[in-house]
Write a structure and sequence with these properties.
The complex is a heterodimer. Chain A is of the alpha/beta class. Chain A has 18 helices and 15 strands. In chain B, helix 2 crosses helix 4 and helix 2 packs across helix 11. The chains are: A alpha/beta, B alpha+beta.
């Protein structure tokens, strides 16, 4: 375990799952038969709309009857089929590993590599974040950082079951200078993934933690000196500090720029899938629609609750749309929409699916899990989530992932639910 | 020759032999003599038409932004990260500040994707006859290129009779090229023809390699594909003012399955348009500082092309693979001298 912390997440509960596996999704088994349980008041940070939404199984379940016809017996939660397509890949459940960028918590600590190996073993798609190459190197022999891009791809590919999952390589404006996609696309390490259709490139338009800003990390003065030709370096912590702030540009997008960048990706990398990551901007619905119409295989939207990255407090607290509002603004669609933002357990993941997401991404929770246990932490966390999804879907009378919808949620303030329904009409 | 990655996927017959065997092969020697006739004829034709030949820059702070997934090669230049030229396009535009019509016989290095090792048409290190004309329109350049190709073919048919015969290349194959104008079709028309041939070509992208071969097999003389969609090419290809989203560019495709020989068109040269187009290709304009500084003060409007020397040689000589037209061929993914 390192010093990774996630004060805005229920860190203790996540670490317990990473340690104990599916047992941790239940109350302590030793209490069984003695303690009386009920709903707990919500504790921790102010709950957002997704937290407040409740999953509401119906009394009448025609979907269960349909499943019973198939099975010839009463269906159980084990009969839920979680396999799905995520942005052109096949996955065993609607979960993917979000990008960890060059943030120190992920790179340089070995956590990025541990997460890659476990995500591979699980067969869930993995996104490798922006700025990894310019900051940590690519990983060819002369530089060979232990946690570089190449090592993460290798670890994932070696562990992944046949036909499942895929690797998604992000590129930001600074990465374009390092030609990250060109590097990967012409690297023998990626050949097999390309041939199996298990490589995607993700255009990073923005991120949840700091909508409208580029990548931001804190560096020592020596590290900063090495990259100051590519990034802005700021004395944010005073001239006496040994640390400085490194900022990347957010990149300038107009509708035409986004459309053409997507066209160029498809043109230049015809054998890789094309993903686009959006920040929770007020025009997120318009941007998602444009990305799909330009040919993106998936659009990832990172709610303002999301982000592993370091960000100014004002951005964490006051900037960007919450994930639920992003999903509402995107509305009904028949393309792949991937959602991330403070997801660590099955309930929030299911709510995202109910509001139109194809899959949900694990970011900080995955980092905490591999920090808790570098060999099995993420696997256990995902197994918990998998069981919860099975339990929840079967309770709703849904036996396939795509069947869940806004009817399966209730929002307590009354205003949100009809609005969702409106968006879905 | 060390084969690093492709041994299991590329049949040995498609790979170049060792250096000695390659250099002493009568096929290599005939191909290189034909190539020599090509450069002689090109210099002669361009010189007669008022072009100045410049020596090409080999390294620079930036180069032509790679398209179709080709990686650039970095060079440590006194602590600055420089690039080997993937093409001299930026320098061609700048050189028009000095002369009205210029050309280079320029080496290019592009780390092409591994999948291109078997196309028979890709080399990592290759040469282009790079031509640029101030204030020219695309139509001027198409006429110039057709004239240049014909001059080269006439010269080669005269000077390389024995080599063509030794390679089994029938001179009559060039009859239509010499007697009829090269056909022009738009990208949209080419996409339509390919779809008629049951090839699933995207209307937003470059004609893919299989498509290019297929369409090239349907004709008896070279032809132009014009009007590529924006998003299929780099920022230097000029966009039509009358038809936004359509580029004022072209490819020249050889018949008989030999595929693309040449790309060119009118250039983006206005400062604001360059910045927008750089962003549309995902770039940070900062790295093009020297070029943008020139553009801010004014770069001339121009059009031009880059004609692949080895590809043209392969077509004229009727070779199976492009590496046969290079003395020291470097195929994608294969370490070789």
């Amino acid at each position: 375990m390192t010093a990774v912390r996630a004060p805005r997440l229920p860190e203790g509960a996540i670490r317990a799952r990473a340690r104990e596996g599916v047992a941790a999704i239940f109350p302590a088994v030793g209490e069984y038969g003695q303690a009386l349980f009920g709903a707990a008041p919500i504790i921790g940070p102010v709950p957002d709309e997704l937290d407040r939404a409740r999953i509401v199984p119906p009394v009448f379940v025609p979907g269960r009857l349909e499943r019973m016809f198939e099975l010839g017996r009463e269906p159980l939660y084990g009969d839920v089929d979680l396999t799905c397509r995520i942005g052109g890949f096949t996955a065993p459940l609607p979960i993917f590993l979000c990008a960890f960028g060059s943030t120190q918590a992920a790179a340089g600590s070995g956590l990025g590599l541990a997460a890659a190996e476990q995500a591979g073993r699980l067969g869930i798609p993995m996104v490798i974040g922006e700025n990894v190459v310019p900051m940590h190197g690519y990983g060819r022999s002369d530089e060979a950082p232990a946690d570089g891009m190449l090592e993460r791809i290798r670890a994932y590919a070696a562990a992944a079951p046949d036909g499942l999952g895929g690797v998604v390589v992000q590129q930001s404006t600074e990465d374009a200078d390092a030609e990250v996609w060109n590097l990967v696309y012409s690297d023998p390490v990626a050949t097999e993934l390309i041939e199996e259709g298990r490589l995607a490139f993700e255009l990073k338009v923005g991120q949840g933690a700091k909508p409208g800003l580029g990548g931001m990390t804190v560096l020592s003065r020596e590290r900063a000196a090495a990259v100051c030709d590519r990034y802005s370096v700021d004395e944010a912590f005073g001239r006496g500090s040994v640390r400085v702030l490194r900022s990347g540009s957010p990149g300038t997008f107009t509708e035409e720029i986004l459309r053409r960048q997507i066209h160029l990706m498809r043109n230049n990398y015809p054998r890789a899938r094309t993903w686009v990551k959006l920040h929770p901007g007020r025009d997120v619905g318009q941007a998602a629609e444009l990305a799909w119409s330009a040919g993106a295989d998936a659009v990832t939207v990172d709610g303002a609750e999301g982000g592993t990255g370091w960000a100014p407090s004002v951005f964490l607290d006051q900037v960007g749309l919450p994930l639920a509002e992003c999903l509402r603004r995107i509305g009904a669609h028949d393309a792949a929409l991937l959602a991330s933002g403070r997801i660590w357990e099955g309930g929030r993941a299911l709510k995202c699916l109910a509001l139109g997401a194809t899959a949900a991404g694990l970011g900080r929770a995955a980092l905490l899990a591999v920090d808790e246990d570098g060999a099995e932490g993420l696997v256990r966390l995902v197994r918990c989530l998998e069981l919860e999804l099975r339990l929840l879907l079967s309770a709703l009378g849904r036996y396939r992932v795509g069947e869940v919808g806004p009817d399966d949620l209730w929002l307590p303030d009354g205003s949100a639910s009809p609005a969702f329904e409106e968006a879905w009409r | 020759m060390t084969q690093t990655t492709l041994g299991e996927t590329v049949p040995a017959a498609k790979l170049p032999p060792g250096t000695r065997e390659h250099l002493t092969s009568p096929v290599t020697q005939a191909a290189l003599r034909i190539q020599n006739a090509v450069t002689t004829a090109a210099r002669e034709h361009l010189g007669m038409n008022g072009f100045i030949e410049l020596t090409p820059p080999v390294i620079g702070p930036v180069t032509d932004p790679g398209v179709r997934g080709a990686k650039q090669l970095d060079v440590d230049y006194y602590g600055h990260r420089y690039k080997l030229m993937t093409s001299v396009i930026l320098y061609k535009q700048a050189s028009l500040l000095a002369f009205e019509k210029i050309f280079y016989v320029a080496p290019n290095v592009r780390m092409e994707p591994l999948e291109t090792a078997t196309t028979g048409r890709h080399l990592v290190e290759f040469t282009q006859i790079d031509v640029e004309v101030r204030d020219a329109r695309r139509e001027d350049i198409l006429g110039l290129l057709q004239g240049l190709i014909r001059h080269i073919v006439v010269h080669v048919l005269q000077e390389s009779k024995a080599d063509l015969a030794a390679l089994g290349r029938d001179p009559d194959a060039f009859g239509p090229l010499l007697s009829e104008d090269f056909e022009r079709m738009t990208h949209a028309e080419a996409v339509g023809r390919l779809r008629d041939l049951l090839h699933g070509q995207s209307s937003d992208a470059e004609i893919d390699w299989q498509g290019e071969k297929l369409i090239s097999e349907q004709t008896d003389r070279p032809f132009f594909i014009v009007d590529y969609p924006k998003g299929s090419r780099g920022f230097t290809d000029g966009e039509s003012a009358a038809q936004p989203g359509i580029l004022r560019n072209f490819d020249l495709i050889a018949p008989g399955g030999f595929g693309e020989l040449c790309s060119g068109g009118e250039r983006t040269h206005e400062y604001r348009r360059l910045i927008e187009r750089m962003r549309e290709s995902g770039e940070n304009p900062a790295k093009y500082a020297w070029y943008l500084a020139l553009a801010k003060e004014g770069l001339p409007a121009s059009a031009g092309f880059g004609l692949g020397l080895e590809r043209l040689t392969r077509y004229l000589a009727g070779l199976d693979a492009i590496w046969q037209a290079n003395a020291y061929p470097k195929l994608p993914g294969i370490a070789s001298p």
